[in-house]
Structures are given as C-alpha cells and as structure tokens.
C-alpha cells in the first residue's frame, strides 16, 4: 500500500447534499475526515434542507453525474465507496454505467461499495422516486458489498419482490436480512433503530439460533459487574439491535437505546463510517462494531443545532494536537512552542545583565566567582537529577543516555575545578561554599520534579539549563561576529566561558537535547493538560535560571 | 454563547464543489471539521474536477441557491461564513439578495463574511464569468468582512477599476491592499504565494514603513538561535509573505516557502480556516496567523493523491481519541477498554479456581491460611505504594485521597489480624511469615512503577487489585442469588470474605477507584503510546493478581 493509502485511504460518496450540513454528502465528508480518510464526493442531487425538513431538491443531468465519477475514478485510487440518496432511475443507471465501465468491464470488482438505500427523509420527503427502487435492486445491488437498510427501507425493498415485508421483531429482522441477501448484495446490515427490543429478545433468539454471534457494546459484557449500573430489570431495558448477515455468518450488534432528537443524518453517517473502516482493511464485523459505536456516541454527544431533529456530533472522536507535526520547515515545533509560550521570561534569562556584562567584559570579578562557585554546587544536583532519570528509565538506550550525561557532568566538574583554580578558587574553597537559596531552589526543584513525575517531566526540567546556555552561547557568537560589535572578545577575561557555550562540543549536546524533547512530543502527543504541565516545568526552570544569574549579580 | 456555539460554532460556505475532494466545498467542510466547527454549505455550482483540471461545470438555478441559503439561515445560528466560487452574476445577486434579507434588512450586519474571490482555477478554468466581477465588487464587497485575493485575482479586481494592477513586489502588495480596501471590504488579506520575496525585502519595507507589524512564523523569531538551521545567507532565502490590511493596521505574515505540488485547494482551505478562527472570536490578526500556519503545514504534510497538483492535508492537526468521551450510556469508557483489552487474563484472575473453590466452600484450609498470611505482607507494600502516591501528589485533595487509603489499609490490617486470629494465626506468626516470591513480585512492582512513573501510572498499578476484588465480590453475590446456585453460603467458612468484598463498604471504594481513573483519562486524554503504557501496567498487575492466587492454591 502506498503511503497515502495507508495513512489516509481515499474513499468516495455518491449521494445528495444537505445544505444544513447534518446529513448527506456533508455528513459523509465530515465522517470521512473524522476517520482520517481522504474523501471525494459525487453529487447526484442537491437539497435545500435543514433540521425541520427538505424544502427543495435539484438534480443535475445524468451526464454530469457520469462526468463527476469519471473525474474522480480517473485520478484517485478509491479504496471503498458508498451510495446515499440517488434520487431517480436515470441517476442510478448513470452511476452503474460508470462503475461497470471502470471496474466490471475491466475485470475488477467494485471496491467495497456500501449502499445506503435512502428512499424517504426522516421528515417524510421522497428522496428516491418510486420507479427507481426496482432499478436500484436490479442494477446496483449486484455491485454492492454491503446494503444498509433501515426498517422501512427493508420493508419497501422486500415488498417490491413480493417477499414478506413486515418487520416487527428480531425474528422478522433475521428473516428479512436473509431475504434481502437474495436481492444481490454480498452482505446486509439491517438497522434496528426503529424497533423496540430488549436483551430478553436477544436471549430468546440466540436460544433458537445458537449459531448467531452477539456483540454487546456497553451492555452486559462478561466480567464487568463493576460497570453495570444497577437497574431493576436490566434484561428488559430498551436496546437497539442491528443485524449483520454476511457470508461469514450472522451477527447481532446490541447497544443501549439513546433517547435523543439528535438523529438527523444517522444513516448517512453510519454508512460513511463503514466505508472508512472497510477501506482500512477491517472485517465487515469489526467495521460494523466500530461504526455503530461511532454513531451511538455521535448521538449521545450531540450539541443542539437547529429547531428540528438536530445532527449528531461527527467530531466526538477527535482531538486537536497541542504540538504540530514536525516538518522539514519546522523540525522543532515543540521547542518553538515552549520558547514562544514563555517568550518574556525566556528573554530575561538568555539576555540577562549577567550575560551582557560578561560579554562586554565589565562583569565584576566577585560576581563571576560567586557564580562559578554556585554553579559547582548546582552541577551536583544536576548529576543527581540524571541519576534519577537513569533509575526511572525503562530501556538500556535511555539508561545509557542518562548515564552518559552524568559522566559528562563529572568530567565538566573537573574542568570546572581547573577553571576555578585559574580564578584563584581552591577545591577546598568550593566544597566549603555555603549554598545560595537560588541554587537550592533550582537544584531541589529538579529532584522534586524527578520524584513527582515520569521521565518526560524530568527531561523537561533539565532542558531549560541545557538549551538556555546554548542560546546564550550562539547569541553571543552571532553578536560578536557583527562589525563594531558590543561584544568584547579581545582581552575579555570571560572569553573562554563564551567560547565554551558557543562551541561545537556544547552545541552538539544542545542538539541532542532538542531532538530528545521533540521525539518525546511526537511519539506521545501531549493532551492540552499534559502540554501545560510540560510548559509549566519549562517556565519554572527558566525562571530559576534567571534567578541564578540574579543571585550572581546581587552576590545573594 | 450557547453550549453548541462555544463547543462547535456553526459556520457556512457558499461555493462550488470539487468532486475529487481537494478544493471547493469539500475542502471547506474538511477544514471546518478539522477546526471542530459545525459546517453548513450552500452549493452555487458543481464541478467535475480532479487534480489535473476541471472537466465540467453545472450550476443550479439562482432560485435554488436562494432556497439553500434560506434553509440554512432559517435554522442554524451561523457565526461566520465564506464565499468561494460564485460562478456568475446571477448567483452572486441571489446570494446578496438573501444575505441582505436576513441581515442588512433586519438591521444586523452579516456575521464575519470572508470572500475568497475565486475567478480562475489553478489549471486555468474560468470559475467566475467576466461580467460577474463587477457585480461581486459592487454588491458583495460592501457586505464583506475580509477579502482574500491572490496576486492574479487582486490584479483583475484592481484593473476593473482602472487602479494600478501589476503586483511584483512587497511595495506593490501594500499599495494593492490599500486600493482593494477602497472597493468595500473591511479588511484585505492579499496572498503572496505567487510572489518570490525574501526577509531582505521585508526588512527593506519595514524600514520605510515603520508602522508595519511583521509576524514571522518559523522564521528568525527572537531568542531562538538554537532553532535556526544553519544557512549560508538566511536573509535571501525564499519566503511567502501575505499582507493583511485591517482597520487596526497592516501586518505582514512571513513564513518559509515550501516547494510542493500539493497545493490544490490552498485558497479555499485558507478562507475556510479563517472563517473558523473568526467564529471562535479570534482577532483578524490571530485568525490569519493560525490559518496561514494551518495551510503551510497542510502543504508540507500532504500525502500524494492524484496525478496533478494534489490536495493539501486537511487532517494534520487532528488525532483520534484512544479513550472515547464519557457519556450517559458509557460513563466508564476507560475501565471498559482496559477490561476488554485484557479480557483473557482478567477472566483468569476474577474467575480463578481459588475464588470458585472458596465460593463453594471446598478451598483447602491451608490454602486460605497461606493466602491471608501473604495478603498481610502484600498490604504493607500496598500502603507504601499509596504513601509514595501521596509524596508524588501536587494538590491537597490528591494528598488527602492517597493518605485516606493508607489509613484504610492500616485499619483493614487490624481487621485482618483479627480475622487471622479466628483462623488460629497469631500476630507473631504473621510477622514471621516468609514472603512468597509472588508477593514480592507484586509488591515490589507497585513500588517500581511508583518510582518510574508519574501519579497516573501508580494509580493504574493500584487499580487492578481494588477493581478485581470488587468484581469477584459482585460476581459471587450475583451467582449466589441465582436459584440452585453453585455458590454455597450456608455453612461456608469463607462466607465473611465473600460478604466483605461484595458489601457496600468495599464497593464504595471500588466506585471511587473507577471514578478516579476515568477522570484521569478524560482530563488528560492519553495518546496511543500513553494508553498502551497504562494498559500495560493494568495487564501486568492483573497477571500478578492471578499469580497471587496461583501461589495460594499451590502453597508456593
């Protein structure tokens, strides 16, 4: 399968519109999008419609329907498709003609065609002319993989062929599904939303038909006593049962009945969801279980829209990413969001007076000495934080990565001691230095986050230090390279410090750090709550970093 | 704002279709859905179209366009709308007539109308007849909040009014945006995708126009040196600049240029995204920044579809929920998924031989004694796990909740000791009992998860014990209530144990436990990776619980 087909299989609807957006092609495209499928659509008819009824219908000529189908099929690799409102016999013939031309005539079978035999709108408007029903049965059903009638549509189709039509019980549904199968489709999903049944009925029918499979969604599932809501007589509770008659056998899909007026477009949405699930390679049973739950939750989570029967909620299964996908032009979206989201305090940190004075060579010697002494004490916390990270890690690579950082810090401490010696500070003096509150605050916060959170939080806590010094190093390097720069490099006692943080060695560590947090955010896209937690830790540490340099400047 | 308007503001597109799904109304509906807005659509024209070109156009009569608009506006509270392909003068007049009737004539202004003045398709097909341009300017522009022309559309509109038309530089864009504003819209977003410019041009124009604001998306943002990809001459890199001329001033929106053929439907998608952002109450500047980034990422993450200029990816910002929303019929979706996802091992746990023999009164006395001794040792780990949870908690209610559980366990241990005494086990014997490997494995695993993970993982680790014993208690209670039950209550030495776990006190704790993990999954919807981590811990603990009863049966 190509990348596009695996990520976003292309599907198509051949149907009518609903201007108000709850049913028809609009519902199909919304459902396709909610299933992350790529949707194409062929317009057989337009309706001026809303939640109170259908006000007008306009149908383009059959030739134009044919041309739309050709345009799609010439260009897009359709994995599954559906038909909805087909309006009249001419339109059906146009659709069948093109499907045969592109598939049957070329020796291929039509990819999963779900036929929703829409005949009458909920509000009673005729959406399929009388003479068209027989054309649909004769010409379209043989190409159909799955037919999805409701009670009245099934009754209409059966009566057309003088089969016993009336459907009033589960037994009637089983018989009707069997009979509908004789009309040509490979499988039948007879929808039971217009029938009132209970689990008692399901138990009765499975007793006399032991080969029946039953899928109970949110209903009396095994070993879930703790989730059953106490009811006086659960077996008589009203439920909805759909019957799937497939070559692999017959399955009843039972779920609780929802009392709701938000049912506009339920049939369109169900068949569109089935198309997406089939396009992804699900079995017809799995596709049905998932699609029926999708509409069930769509009805139950609907928000009120319109004055009549409102649409179901097509978007209940979606969340919007807090961190965009990484792309070539934006390879580090998470770090970018962190910096953007804390721009003020981040600027105060990386363009701190301490840094500016240091770069100009005007930083008082005692401030720098205070800083490097406290930095020594801070590094001990920092090493311990990575030791805690190693202890919290669950793979050898992540244990090694954290351990490498500890080793790096220990090596850095040796360099640090040599550096301090140049400034006249002995090791004994370093060890005897009392810890400033700013150092304790920052160091203890790292370990507290490490105790409280998972590895991701601890990684976030350690990031502000690593990335901030990297930013300072690069900024000073860039500024120093400008003509007549304010950065003093000749005879600046702090030049080595600047060179270290702007240098390749440290910048490599920064790159690894950025890749680590980006990989984390892409692999486990954070919810808004989790994103705020991560950003909160980043911001706290940015503030503590600023506080560290405040401390150095103020000799606090 | 009503619940629906806040959660899913209703928006409308008045435009033409693209059967292949990448542009037009299809792109609009996909964009609306990706922005979690409720979309309605009025079809002005249908096209048979694909990524290689437009093959045919069909337009319904103006009266039918009017009726579609009436159907929507009579029923749905539209917060913002857009126009796309309007095809001809008659259609435009029909749209304007209805908008005036429903808004201007009633003394209300049209809610945020974004007019995308589509004239010619990318492939060169005329989508707006020549005489219609003037009608659009004269009649539709006065109702327009934001006009979004590209270079050629702007040139066409300006030449129509004998204004200087040619747009070849940023300076031309500023002048053109000013001139277009005179044609009636309240704001102009002049799109720069067809112009080649660089940051050097932006710097030049901001020098001579210091009042200009510049929004740089993924470009040279301040204090982000660590994210700049090294380039020989970044200032001359090709970028895209859109110019927004609004009452509040002029803003340039700069972003990297993406070399891609996946640009079919970019204009439609941009205006649809603007509509959603305006409907949510964003300023026009914020709406533009977000919408331009949406199409930028849409182009960059596009998957190949069709043979020509493929569509952008409308779904890059979406993820599908791992745990469904909680609803009235399914108040505990997370717990349900956990049990469903580990059904086999869960059943082996809650219907364990130990439990069955206990319920029948046939469990050997030494097995039960071994069990309650080890249970005593396990409870010590369990109390410590909650102590760790308290230490990891960040609010007083969560600290209290964990502490309450410790107290409950300590109280339970007293009862446990009394219970053991009834079975002839002294406290000294309890303390001297060597710990079985199954006890150590389970207890130490709890503390290990507690060390490794955040509070959510520790809560998951403690859930299998709480919920499993609850399930056993309810199951045995239900089975005992059946006529001729296999559960023996009369003279069963283990009756009290069954009564305890089926009783109100313990079941209350189970309910609180379920609510806790459900609230956790709803507040911080887990990514697929995180969901699998949670489920993995649940499964491990289920297995360890089963191992605990194996140990009791085998006296291991």
From TrEMBL, chains A, B:
Gene Ontology biological process terms in this record: thiamine biosynthetic process
Alphabetical keyword list: Kinase, Transferase
Keyword Transferase assigned: yes
Domain spans labelled Pyridoxamine kinase/Phosphomethylpyrimidine kinase: 18-313
Domain Thiaminase-2/PQQC: 343-553
Taxonomic superkingdom: Eukaryota
InterPro entries associated with the record: Haem_Oase-like_multi-hlx (IPR016084), HMP/HMP-P_kinase_dom (IPR004399), PM/HMP-P_kinase-1 (IPR013749), Ribokinase-like (IPR029056), Thiaminase-2/PQQC (IPR004305), Thiaminase_II (IPR027574)
Recorded GO CC terms: cytosol
Gene Ontology MF term list: hydroxymethylpyrimidine kinase activity; phosphomethylpyrimidine kinase activity; thiaminase activity
PANTHER family registered for this protein in UniProt: HYDROXYMETHYLPYRIMIDINE_PHOSPHOMETHYLPYRIMIDINE KINASE THI20-RELATED (PTHR20858:SF17), PHOSPHOMETHYLPYRIMIDINE KINASE (PTHR20858)
Protein name (record): Hydroxymethylpyrimidine/ phosphomethylpyrimidine kinase
Taxonomic path: Eukaryota, Fungi, Dikarya, Basidiomycota, Agaricomycotina
């Amino acid at each position: 399968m190509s990348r596009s087909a695996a990520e976003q299989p292309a599907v198509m609807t051949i149907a009518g519109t609903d201007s108000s957006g709850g049913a028809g092609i609009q519902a199909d495209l919304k459902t396709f999008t909610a299933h992350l499928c790529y949707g194409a659509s062929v317009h057989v008819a337009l309706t001026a419609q809303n939640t109170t009824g259908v006000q007008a219908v306009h149908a383009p000529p059959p030739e134009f329907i044919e041309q739309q189908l050709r345009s799609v099929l010439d260009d897009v690799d359709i994995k599954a498709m559906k038909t909805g409102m087909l309006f009249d016999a001419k339109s059906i013939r146009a659709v069948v003609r093109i499907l045969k031309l592109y598939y049957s005539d070329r020796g291929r079978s039509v990819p999963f065609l779900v036929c929703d035999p829409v005949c009458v709108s909920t509000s009673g408007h005729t959406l399929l002319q009388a003479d068209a029903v027989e054309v649909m049965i004769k010409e379209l059903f043989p190409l159909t993989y799955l037919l999805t009638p409701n009670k009245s549509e099934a009754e209409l189709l059966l009566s057309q062929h003088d089969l016993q039509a009336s459907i009033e019980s589960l037994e009637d549904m089983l018989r009707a599904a069997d009979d509908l199968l004789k009309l040509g489709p490979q499988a039948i999903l007879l929808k039971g939303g217009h029938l009132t049944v209970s689990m008692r009925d399901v138990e009765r029918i499975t007793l006399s038909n032991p080969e029946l499979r039953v899928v109970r969604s949110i209903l009396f599932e095994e070993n879930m006593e703790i989730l059953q809501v106490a009811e006086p007589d659960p077996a008589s509770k009203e439920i909805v049962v759909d019957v799937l008659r497939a070559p692999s056998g017959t399955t009843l899909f039972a779920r609780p009945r929802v009392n709701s007026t938000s049912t506009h477009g339920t049939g369109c949405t169900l068949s569109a969801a089935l198309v997406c699930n089939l396009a992804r390679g699900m079995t017809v049973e799995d596709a049905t279980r998932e699609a029926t739950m999708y509409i069930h939750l769509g009805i139950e989570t609907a928000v009120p829209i319109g004055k009549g029967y409102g649409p179901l909620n097509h978007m209940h299964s979606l969340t919007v990413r807090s961190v965009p996908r990484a792309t070539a032009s934006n390879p580090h979206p998470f770090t970018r969001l962190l910096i953007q989201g804390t721009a003020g305090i981040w600027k105060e940190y990386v363009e701190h007076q301490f840094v500016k004075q240091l770069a100009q060579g005007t930083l008082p010697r005692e401030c720098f000495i205070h800083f490097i002494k406290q930095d020594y004490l801070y590094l001990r916390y920092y090493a311990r934080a990575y030791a805690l990270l190693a202890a919290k890690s669950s793979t050898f690579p992540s244990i090694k990565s954290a351990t490498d950082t500890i080793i790096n810090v220990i090596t850095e401490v040796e360099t640090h001691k040599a550096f301090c010696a140049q400034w006249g500070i002995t090791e004994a003096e370093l060890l005897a230095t009392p810890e400033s509150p700013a150092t304790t605050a920052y160091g203890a916060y790292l370990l507290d986050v490490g105790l409280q959170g998972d590895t991701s939080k601890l990684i976030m806590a350690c990031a502000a230090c690593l990335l901030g010094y990297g930013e300072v190093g690069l900024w000073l390097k860039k500024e120093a390279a400008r003509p007549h720069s304010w950065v003093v490099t000749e005879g600046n006692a702090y030049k080595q410090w600047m060179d270290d943080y702007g240098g390749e060695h440290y910048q490599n560590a920064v790159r690894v750090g950025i890749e680590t947090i980006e990989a984390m955010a892409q692999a486990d896209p954070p919810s808004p709550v989790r994103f705020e937690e991560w950003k909160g830790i980043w911001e706290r540490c940015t503030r503590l970093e600023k506080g560290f340099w405040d401390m150095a400047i103020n000799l606090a």
